Automatic annotation (TrEMBL):
Residues 79-106 form a coiled coil. Residues 1-69 form the HTH merR-type domain. The lineage of its organism: Bacteria, Bacillati, Actinomycetota, Actinomycetes, Kitasatosporales. SMART domains: HTH_MERR. It comes from the Bacteria. This is MerR family transcriptional regulator. GO terms for molecular function: DNA binding; DNA-binding transcription factor activity.
Length: 251
């Protein structure tokens, strides 16, 4: 192969190939009698590896160190690694397109785009003007986008809870605590009732480590005023105990 051919094959410019030669990153191949460089498959593999390493953010000096570690490896091993890397990229692109397709199928709302499962859950919940309920919707949308919400199984398990007739009254009681202090006597009974309202089916599909007033849970807690934050913190802690007890029985 000539320089233009190897550059086109790998997806770089001839100028880039010459630069890699100039800095010693890509060994310059032998020249034919007519003076043209004669590139081989190994040259193409090495050039492709340089391109991949730079694309993921490595500096040329860092690329040089990686290539030094690869020196002496069999061509078939390097080709196998390249093929595996391309397969991984194909899989990641396919998974991202599947997620995108699901988002495009879901109704576009002010919360969205949402996954179809979460959109169905929110659609099933009764309409309410409760600020606490609106905050819950925002948190679910955030968890859905961040990938920490537990997925379709959790949303399906939450549906009976969202449709329960007494949930609206619980939200109203939480709203009433918006300006209260952390010693308000309404905190303890409300937290207990909220914990009792969560069915075991929900606990069974909560991701490991959740609910928890640490990490993502801590960020959500900071979104509440003091008395409401105390209610939600107690609910998280009590549900975590129930989750451990439930999984201990089934483990």
């Amino acid at each position: 192969m000539r320089i233009g051919e190897i550059a086109a094959l790998v997806g770089v410019t001839s100028r880039a190939v010459r630069h890699y030669h100039h800095i010693g990153l890509l060994p310059e191949p032998a020249r034919r009698a007519n003076g043209y460089r004669a590139y081989t498959v190994r040259d193409a593999v090495l050039l492709a590896r340089i391109r991949r390493l730079t694309e993921i953010g490595l500096s040329l000096d860092e690329v040089r160190d990686v290539l030094a570690d690869d020196a002496g490896r069999e061509l078939v091993e390097v080709l196998g690694e390249l093929d595996a890397d391309l397969a991984r990229q194909e899989r990641e692109i396919r998974e991202r397109r599947e997620v995108l397709a699901a988002l495009l199928e879901a109704p576009l709302t002010s919360d969205g785009p949402l996954s179809p499962a979460l959109a169905a859950l929110l659609e099933s919940a009764p309409t309410t003007g409760s600020p606490a309920a609106a905050k819950d919707r925002e948190h679910l949308a955030l968890l859905d986008t961040a990938g920490g919400g537990g997925g379709a199984e959790l949303y399906a398990a939450l549906r009976p809870l969202a449709e329960a007739p007494g949930v609206g009254a619980l939200y109203e009681r939480l709203d009433e605590l918006a300006g209260a202090g952390v010693d308000d006597p309404r905190i303890t009974p409300l937290a207990a009732e909220l914990v009792a309202a969560v069915p075991d089916e929900v606990l069974a599909v909560i991701p490991d480590g959740e609910p928890s007033p640490t990490g993502f849970g801590r960020v959500l807690l900071e979104d509440y005023p003091p008395a409401q934050r105390e209610v939600v913190r107690r609910v998280m802690e009590a549900l975590a105990v129930r989750v451990r007890a439930t999984r201990g029985r089934t483990g």
